[in-house]
């Protein structure tokens, strides 16, 4: 009886009515709050002013997510596929169960390591909890379908982009390496400039200084417009199709 | 009789003929002139050369807008919904009446405060008068409708953008914090770099310097193209639909 | 008889066959060569190495264009509208005749002035000869028509862009003026930053340094994506319509 | 018999089944590996740690590509067009045979020159091997067709872009040359700034400093949005058409 109630409250497919169950709504809020706290904690000046609060909150969040994880594991038995010990083990390796595990694992891994970089990485991993929100959204299927239908064309434009990236950095390496060995001394080094230019980000920390380098850079920048126009055009066409198919039965 | 004339001249729905009534056209011009003067006044070198002119003009504009506000309040009685004292009070809390109030309020608030920042903010608020022009435009409904019809998909792409923003700043915090504590020392700090990169603005005041940081930055910059392509594609599809529906009855 | 031959060779509507007449093709080549020479001449190091060549070429180009102008004026008599002295005077004030005049006028104006800036401006005006090419292209009507059909929506998005520009520079003036009086000390000064950010150009010569300024700057940068997405979406929809109408009769 | 087997394995049109023949798959992998090695070799710190490995690998790759080239030349005889000595000579001048030659030629040219720049250029030319992959892709026809169908409109927008580029750099030369002779001292010099602004890359290494220069720069930046919107809109419309035609027979 308890298991049935838990299942209805926790499993999105167990909730008959429209929207999310009250418990899942609470979980969503909890994920957002925990992520917000995790972001704030990385700022030393904020954490140092309330050192106990952040440690306490993290313990609280992990405790709540652990309880939620165990409850989900227990409630999974309602589904015939995950009945018994073997079923539960099978459930633990489903996609969303693994994602749920990510919400609590970094905390326990934090006891093992004392390396500053690893601790930072674990803090960042807490933000991956946000991906748990995906479980509750049955909605983005329309966009995902439109993307999927043109996956092939999108991949092709990514391939063209990659080729452009390599060729432009190769040419700038050839003409600029003598003038700026630090920034353009090899193709991998020139890639940093190349990606900033082709995506039209243009930091300006590295720019060609020779006349020939500027010529190739100009061609790269113009090619960058095509690079943006191509996926945009493909997506626009894909969404246009998707919307028309969606609207068609309504009329 | 006066009230009826005022109503016809002031209320956009009171004017039967095409376009705006003469009085409303004058109000539009006044709003534009007042905004232009407000912009010029913020430049010290211009204001100091004509100190009296700017003070005088502002008093004049506020006086005119106040008269207009009172006239609108009086004329609102023509509409059965806003008759009597209670109706007028109700009118004062309608959307456009509140917007109209913004045109005169900053002036009077300016007498209360002497804080430089507050005075600057009040000057800026004068520019909000421009939003009053929205009252006179029945036109942008076509665009607004197209946006509304795809609001859900647009919000979703905003959500994806927000997630990308957080994840990219989190990863750059993890790999760059040691090398540049001032710029990437926390997730909120890294956000500034992240937003400049994902929107392809790319100021270049903050750039990663470690190899790993550049790798993640490159991935972020490429993701930024997708970030631009997605809403553009959705809007293109939405406008395409809207134009086709609009043109259909004409054929 | 001469006048008729000239008319056939010079007036695009006088040439019966497909494409351009031999004389007009020559004129096109001449315009391109003259523009290329004009660009090179601005570079001092190139001009100083061949001082006589550039002066001589310019005299040659102006002589040729003058002859062409007079020939066109003479041949215009073939058209019943431009017959006689009065007709010729009327022809001189048609759009393309005025554009043709721009090709030769800067040369003669160059004798009047000795101001360095004016001489530079006249050199630049030589490039306006390129606009004469428009006379020979009957082709861009398809694109122009698509743009025209959605002119209203495009203007509206320009209006929204202008409003965004003013509001973002106003807010940055309010929060950054104290920290950077030189760059954000007034709304017109802040406009330079604002336009660089909203168009996602992002030079990085001026960036906000206060936390509040960065927050507003981030919002501006995100709004910049919408600013790009909106006209792109409108144009995509307009071209899509235009192409479909063009293809429809063929099927 | 050997020739027939080779033909089936090497010529894409000789392979009956779906996809690529095993030998061609191997060639694809080889091209990717050789390109990756060529990229790494340009980085001195990597090459110096394994000097023999890179020289050896390059010899190996060239040997393999040479064998492949000769095998293709031999197998070409299966095609009636390329039979006999004359046919083989004709084959050697087909597009793809020339592209294949590029894969091996730089190696042999490397023995002739000792100029650092030429050696770098030859290293970069190795990356052109990647273009050989195009031979194996029958797929990008859909995109290429969509591009081709609107080639005229795309070229026109390139022409408009070129005109904008010239005009904006000409105007900035006129107003900024006095203040920044090094960066804006001639139209070709101003082009570097102009291309960075119109493509919205915006490095920020060169920015106008005069008020008039900033005004023109702002107009250029806004025009840059149109420059991006136009090809994007054309491509979106072209892809939309292409996808609809492709989907039509399926329904």
Automatic annotation (TrEMBL), chains A, B, C, D:
Residues 26-245 form the Ion transport domain. It is found in: Membrane. The keyword Transmembrane helix applies. It comes from the Bacteria. The chain crosses the membrane at residues 21-40, 52-71, 92-112, 154-175, 187-204, 216-239. Pfam families: Ion_trans. InterPro entries: Ion_trans_dom, K_chnl_volt-dep_KCNQ, VG_K_chnl, Volt_channel_dom_sf. Its main location: membrane. Keywords: Ion channel, Ion transport, Membrane, Potassium, Potassium channel, Potassium transport, Transmembrane, Transmembrane helix, Transport, Voltage-gated channel. The keyword Ion transport applies. This is Potassium channel family protein. It comes from Billgrantia desiderata.
